């Protein structure tokens, strides 16, 4: 049956009324509806649609006419309510963002004319091409993407070097430039320690530890994990060290890397020995026995940070910073509970744990490993759950707790497991409450174990600062409440876990010895790199939008480039576009 | 490789410079066959790239029947349809004879056309006059009412406007009218009410000075006052004249025409001269009048996308907040996003048409086919939506996208022509 409501002197634009009609017609129990102003032409339209009623006769051009065909009269009130609701809420909520969003490089540089840094987080196969476009526009580049070929990496880095630009990455997970955290990065005090590293969580662990010890960092430059590979030749590392060497606010330089190829290492060390600033270096997995000349060698990430802080504060350097500084909790274990399972989200943190545990076990861990395993010896295991094989089609364990909980459970089912060792990495990009997300899994494992009359211990460290968006104190409190044994650094956590099983690591006492004499390297730094280290960066963020948050929150300017593959990935079109330049 | 230009960018700049320096004037209204020689035979012009009768949409076929009747080539619709089917009447795209046509774009020799002259280039372009809404030829209607109106156009409206323009003497400066109208909320495709009003204001004093009968003056002024979209066709003829001057530069990748015939969408780029690059047309999406819906919408038609080619229409969505909701249920943010998106595929802003709601930035200028392919952003076109059956007329309004494939084919052909890549 037809119902007619005429709202007098209630003019609405016809477009509005078309939209409103569309909306009402989707309501349950409405056969047909039309809402129009009562103009003669509209009345004709209503007639044609078999929606004309006598009540419309008296409607004038400024009256809104609602004609509803429905089987139930009570629907009419619903329609009227919905109409009022719609008309009262026409203003479109506008979510104004602090940055412009663009779809091309040209537009990006137009929106942010001073752009001098691009963050590239596109799929790997496109990252090299986009990085080159950034270099062509005289921008430094941070390539977050992985799966860039070594050949591409070398070509890009050579091009950058020739142009006086810096390429961080590929697979550069973190960096801090002039106080602006980039990609997955922690928020920390600004200070005088310049960090350069070939590892994401290595940089995060060292810089957050520096922050915890009361010092600050000037910059943290990521080089990407392959930079010290002989095929790349440390192009970024060398340029980055020179930049920090010339940066007046940087007083101590800290270098983090896996052991490089011999000839690359020689070149890097030669440069380090040429500097007028002291350097702390860690080549992860190596066991240095002395400091040499200008370079202090550390065994752990914790020690790296501690030496850097003592250097910057002018304190004497102690022969050792690695020893366990916390009490060892008393444990009750079944005789078969003898092993540690290290389940890490940070690759370098896991690598450090594997190195330390191997050392404690006197196990030679230098052999090849199954993918993802950093250690697998006598039931002792350390797994990098951020490895590609665990992140195929799944989010990284810094973002998503599921894989980790699953591996916690698997570890708990192993009769030999006494301790589950893990990391929790805070900062921009990471899960907003990973402690809260992991605790139900941890508590369930503890309860199940207790039901079987045994205890499984969780030992962890939290990599973060009190300025991180997650709040380190809150995260720690949650874990402690759940019975997790917490330590301030990964080294302390691993040593605690080992000590709980009565395993100790021999302490190395290092002395300062003179370095072998080498030629002094001349240090020149391009204007563009100097500028990067003296001003807040203007960033074009190509890809993952969430990276914009850390930049705007810390005084950087950013334009978001909603990247899509050029020409939809069509190879012929891509070729044509490249020849039609 | 690019003639006198060192790079494609330089050639493109030269093309858009021509657009900026253009000076289109409305100089006359004349019978189509007096300026388009081809129309002296049994010839009809149509919108879009070349098309055969059997591929025409029902509304376009309806328009052909209407025009055949109007020219007196047939005495009834059946007879007209037979002549058309048998190929007794030749079809030529409007674009091939310096013309553009709205929707079906069907133009015959006796129809009066607006004459726009680009005084920067000295060339002219033509377009039929807007018939208003309801039963109109451009949507395929050919009832007596439609034919009667066309006869009145031929006998009264056309000659009266011609006389009025001649009273004025040097033509009407279209850029000035458009620059005013764009600040009054027109984007010159979906919304032309301000432009139509300005035209009425400019022309009325001269109409009054002509020697035509008072009742005709009254009728002409009333028609112009009633026809909100009248200015659209003036804008179409003018932007066609401008783009034709610009495309005398036969280098580079600037799009110089976009048009649709209900079957195919066609574009031209400067570097490929007269060649069309076509792909199947899309069907517009939008809002529909009562009783009609998306299923009844006719595939995209008309040469009116010359306005978008020029950088207004959908590209100037931000100038016309009143019609932005056709884009979707969005508000000003959607409008500005639409125009900003279109700037991703354009080279610059046109300083002649400053848009207050866009921080006084000029309208978009110079669609670069390379940028369309690179970004995958297809040009947006504001359009009326025709019923897919002839004669029903307009059933809604909305937007439609120019298919990416046209732009891919165009730059592919250009790269091949330059010898930069082997043909596929």
Characterise this structure.
- The complex is a heterodimer of chains A (581) and B (424).
- In chain A, helix 5 packs parallel to helix 6, helix 11 runs parallel beside helix 16 (490-500) and helix 13 (402-413) packs parallel to helix 14.
- With 581 residues, chain A is an alpha/beta fold.
- Chain A has three domains: 2-88, 2-Layer Sandwich (Alpha-Beta Plaits), CATH 3.30.70; 101-321, Rossmann fold; 339-500, Succinyl-CoA synthetase domains (Rossmann fold, 3-Layer(aba) Sandwich), CATH 3.40.50.
- Chain A starts with a strand and ends with a helix.
- Chain B has 424 residues and is an alpha+beta fold.
- In chain B, the strands form five sheets. In chain B, strands 4-6-5-1-7 form a five-stranded mixed β-sheet.
- Chain B has two domains: 27-235, Enterococcus faecalis V583 domain (Enterococcus faecalis V583 fold, Alpha-Beta Complex), CATH 3.90.1710.10; 250-417, Alpha-Beta Complex (v583 fold), CATH 3.90.1700.
- The model of chain B has no long low-confidence stretch (mean pLDDT 95).
- Chain B has helices spanning 8-20, 32-35, 58-70, 77-85, 144-168, 174-182, 193-209, 214-226, 230-246, 306-310, 332-343, 369-375, 404-417, and strands at 24-31, 43-46, 90-93, 99-100, 112-118, 123-128, 172-173, 255-261, 264-269, 277-280, 285-288, 301-302, 346-355, 361-367, 380-386, 394-401.
- Chain B is globular, with a radius of gyration of 20 Å.
- The longest helix of chain B has 25 residues, at 144-168.
- The interface between A and B is large, with 35 and 38 residues.
What are the main properties of this structure?
heterodimer, A: 581 residues, alpha/beta, Alpha-Beta Plaits, Rossmann fold, 3 domains, six-stranded parallel β-sheet, six-stranded mixed β-sheet, globular, B: 424 residues, alpha+beta, Enterococcus faecalis V583 fold, v583 fold, 2 domains, five-stranded mixed β-sheet, four-stranded antiparallel β-sheet, 13 helices, 16 strands, 21% strand
């Amino acid at each position: 049956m037809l119902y007619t409501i005429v709202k007098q002197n209630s003019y609405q634009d016809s477009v509005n009324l078309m939209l409103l009609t569309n909306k009402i017609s989707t309501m349950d129990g409405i056969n047909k509806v039309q809402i129009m102003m009562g103009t003669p032409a509209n009345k004709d339209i209503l007639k044609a649609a078999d929606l004309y009623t006598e009540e419309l006769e008296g409607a004038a051009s400024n009256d809104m006419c609602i004609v509803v065909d429905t089987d139930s009269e009570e629907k009419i009130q619903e329609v009227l309510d919905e109409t009022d609701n719609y008309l009262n809420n026409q203003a479109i909520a506008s979510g104004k963002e602090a940055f412009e969003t663009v779809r091309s490089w040209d537009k990006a540089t137009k929106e942010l004319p001073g752009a001098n840094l691009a963050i590239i987080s596109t799929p790997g196969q496109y990252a090299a091409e986009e990085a080159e476009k950034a270099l062509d526009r005289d921008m430094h580049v941070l390539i977050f993407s992985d799966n860039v070929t070594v050949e591409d990496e070398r070509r890009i880095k050579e091009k950058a070097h020739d142009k006086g630009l810096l390429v961080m990455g590929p697979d550069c997970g973190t960096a801090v430039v002039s106080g602006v955290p980039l990609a997955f990065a922690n928020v920390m005090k600004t200070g005088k320690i310049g960090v350069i590293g070939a590892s994401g969580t290595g940089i995060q662990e060292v810089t957050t530890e520096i922050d915890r010890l009361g010092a600050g960092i000037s910059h943290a430059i990521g080089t990407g994990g392959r930079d010290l590979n002989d095929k790349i030749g440390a192009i970024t590392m060398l340029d980055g060290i020179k930049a920090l060497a010339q940066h007046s606010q940087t007083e101590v330089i800290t270098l983090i890397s896996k052991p490089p190829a011999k000839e690359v290492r020689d070149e890097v060390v030669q440069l380090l020995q040429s500097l007028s600033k002291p350097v702390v270096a860690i080549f992860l997995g190596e066991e240095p026995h002395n400091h040499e000349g200008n370079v202090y060698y550390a065994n752990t990430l914790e020690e790296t940070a501690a030496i850097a802080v003592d250097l910057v504060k002018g304190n004497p350097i102690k022969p050792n910073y690695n020893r366990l500084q916390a009490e060892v909790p008393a444990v009750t274990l079944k005789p078969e509970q003898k092993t540690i399972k290290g389940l890490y989200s940070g690759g370098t943190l896991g690598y450090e744990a594997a190195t330390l545990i191997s050392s404690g076990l006197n196990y030679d861990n230098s052999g090849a490993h199954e993918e993802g395993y950093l250690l697998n010896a006598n039931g002792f295991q350390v797994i990098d759950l951020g490895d590609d094989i665990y992140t195929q089609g799944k989010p990284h364990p810094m973002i998503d707790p599921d894989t980790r909980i699953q591996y916690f459970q698997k570890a708990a089912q192993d009769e030999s497991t006494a301790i589950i060792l893990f990391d929790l990495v805070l900062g921009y990009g990471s899960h907003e409450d990973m402690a809260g997300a992991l605790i139900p899994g941890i508590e369930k494992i503890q309860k199940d174990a207790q039901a079987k009359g045994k205890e499984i211990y969780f030992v962890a460290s939290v990599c973060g600062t009190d300025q991180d968006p997650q709040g380190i104190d809150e995260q720690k409190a949650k874990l402690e409440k759940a019975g997790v044994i917490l330590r301030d650094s990964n080294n302390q956590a691993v040593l605690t876990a080992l000590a709980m099983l009565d395993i100790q690591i021999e302490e190395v006492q290092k002395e300062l010895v003179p370095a072998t004499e080498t030629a002094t390297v001349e240090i020149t730094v391009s204007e563009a790199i100097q500028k990067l280290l003296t001003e807040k960066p203007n960033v074009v963020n190509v890809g993952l939008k969430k990276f914009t948050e850390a930049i705007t929150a810390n005084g950087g300017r950013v334009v978001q480039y909603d990247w899509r593959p050029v020409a939809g990935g069509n190879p012929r079109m891509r070729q044509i576009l490249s020849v039609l330049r | 490789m690019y003639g006198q230009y060192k790079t494609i960018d330089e050639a493109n700049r030269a093309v858009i410079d021509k657009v900026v320096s253009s000076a289109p004037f409305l100089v006359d209204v004349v019978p189509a066959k007096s300026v388009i020689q081809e129309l002296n035979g049994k010839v009809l012009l149509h919108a879009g790239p070349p098309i055969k009768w059997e591929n025409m949409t029902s509304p376009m076929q309806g328009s052909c029947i209407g025009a055949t009747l109007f020219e007196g080539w047939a005495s009834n619709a059946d007879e007209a349809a037979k002549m058309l089917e048998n190929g007794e009447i030749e079809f030529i795209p409007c674009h091939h004879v310096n013309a553009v046509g709205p929707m079906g774009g069907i133009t015959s020799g006796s129809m009066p056309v607006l004459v726009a002259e680009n005084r920067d280039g000295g060339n002219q372009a033509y377009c039929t006059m807007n018939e208003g809404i309801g039963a109109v030829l451009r949507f395929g209607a050919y009832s007596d009412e439609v034919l009667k109106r066309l006869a009145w156009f031929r006998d009264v409206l056309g000659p009266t406007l011609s006389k009025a323009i001649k009273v004025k003497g040097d033509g009407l400066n279209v850029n000035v009218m458009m620059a005013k109208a764009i600040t009054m909320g027109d984007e010159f495709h979906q919304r032309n009410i301000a432009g139509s009003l300005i035209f009425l204001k400019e022309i009325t004093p001269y109409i009054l000075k002509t020697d035509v009968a008072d009742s005709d003056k009254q009728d002409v002024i009333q028609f112009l006052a009633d026809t909100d979209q009248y200015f659209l066709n003036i804008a179409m003829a003018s932007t066609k004249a401008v783009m034709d001057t610009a495309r005398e530069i036969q280098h580079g990748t600037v799009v110089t025409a976009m048009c649709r015939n209900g079957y195919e969408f066609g574009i031209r780029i400067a570097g490929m001269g007269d060649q069309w690059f076509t792909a199947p047309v899309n069907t517009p999406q939008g809002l529909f009048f009562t009783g009609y819906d998306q299923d009844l919408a006719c595939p995209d038609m008309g040469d009116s996308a010359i306005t978008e080619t020029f950088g207004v229409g959908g590209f100037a969505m931000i100038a016309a907040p009143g019609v932005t909701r056709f884009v979707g249920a969005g508000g000003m943010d959607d409008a500005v996003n639409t125009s900003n998106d279109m700037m991703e595929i354009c080279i610059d802003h046109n300083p002649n048409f400053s848009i207050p709601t866009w921080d006084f930035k000029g309208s978009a200028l110079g669609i670069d086919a390379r940028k369309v392919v690179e970004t995958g952003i297809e040009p947006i076109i504001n359009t009326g939506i025709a019923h897919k059956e002839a004669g029903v007329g307009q059933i809604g309004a909305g937007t439609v996208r120019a298919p990416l494939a046209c732009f891919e084919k165009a730059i592919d052909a250009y790269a091949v022509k330059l010898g930069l890549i082997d043909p596929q």
